[in-house]
Amino acid sequence: MKKIIFAFVALFFATLSYAQIEGKWKTIDDETGQAKSIVEIQKRANGQYYGKVVQLLIKPADPNCSGCKDDRKGKPVLGMEVIRDLKKDGNEFSGGTITDPKTGKTYKCIIKREGDKLDVRGYIGFALIGRSQTWHKVD
């Protein structure tokens, strides 16, 4: 009986951790297919998820976000918070934004985890109109 209870508890926690997006993720450029950076996603005390660039894998043409229009304007891409205010909603994370440091544009964001990959979608207006990237888990 103890083994069965332990198995259910282990399965429950494995399911919870599978749906989480916390950790480090290698970003892949959807246009070139090259790895660009490492983004670390963390859950804050307010229950929302935020992600910042912790490593650049390709030297950007502009090391600062010149195109940003908010508090990130002119700030270095390295260390920049590119994901803000995501909330867990079932098996996806939404309600927040993602900023493209290359252009400075900010989009609504939906993230879904599939194994060791994140499906990251940035869009304006409707989720059907936007761009998707696949990010890979970094150990």
Automatic annotation (TrEMBL):
Record-linked Pfam families: DUF2147
Gene3D superfamilies: 2.40.128.520
Xref: InterPro entries: DUF2147
Keywords: Signal
Record carries keyword Membrane: no
Cleavable signal peptide: 1-19
Record's keyword annotation contains Cytoplasm: no
Protein name: DUF2147 domain-containing protein
Gene source species: Chryseobacterium koreense CCUG 49689
